[in-house]
Amino acid sequence: MVTIKQATEADIPALLEIYNHVIVNTTAVYDYEPHTLAMRQQWFATKQQQGFPVFVAEENGEVLGFSSIGPFRAWAAYKHTVENSIYVAAAARGRGIAKLLMPPLIEAARQLKLHTMVAGIDASNEASIALHKKFGFTEVAHFKEVGYKFNRWLDLKFLQLIL
Question: How far apart are CA 32 and CA 36, in angstroms?
Fold first, then answer.
């Protein structure tokens, strides 16, 4: 059975493995180079310092995916807005893992008294767009050719949920 829990430092290597697979093989992250363990440890420490949760989906001790929220933009007036991220291990995709990781993010954002959650999603990622819409997100922007990866231009959609 899949359970959702708060991530711990012990989960960081699994989070790194999932994230690096996404970087190298998909357009879900507009980055080219895999991250290091030190980078993912710093990311996790920053989430903790900022008071933002990181959740993991786990089954039989194996991390199948993770989700988090973080600042949308660095300027002070954006302090009530967060951006969400959900990543699922390649072998676990299509099992509803992301659907389990979304509710705790939304609940955590509400408990933190945040106003809105934004998701930046590659326009070709129909599964992620559908997932977000299922939870009440609406598309608010479609940026044409703002990313370049795998020898092609990528469009980015922004979806938003008013909490």
Answer: 13
Question: How far is it, in rounded angstroms, from Cα 163 to Cα 69?
Answer: 13
Q: d(Cα 39, Cα 37) in Å, to the nearest integer?
A: 5
Sheet holding 116-122, edge to edge: 3-6, 54-59, 62-71, 81-88, 116-122, 152-162, 138-149
Q: Tell me the pLDDT band of 52, cut-offs 50, 70 and 90.
A: very high
Model pTM score: 0.95
Which is the CATH superfamily of the domain at 3-90+97-162? Gcn5-related N-acetyltransferase (GNAT) (3.40.630.30)
C-beta atoms surrounding 84 within 10 Å: 24
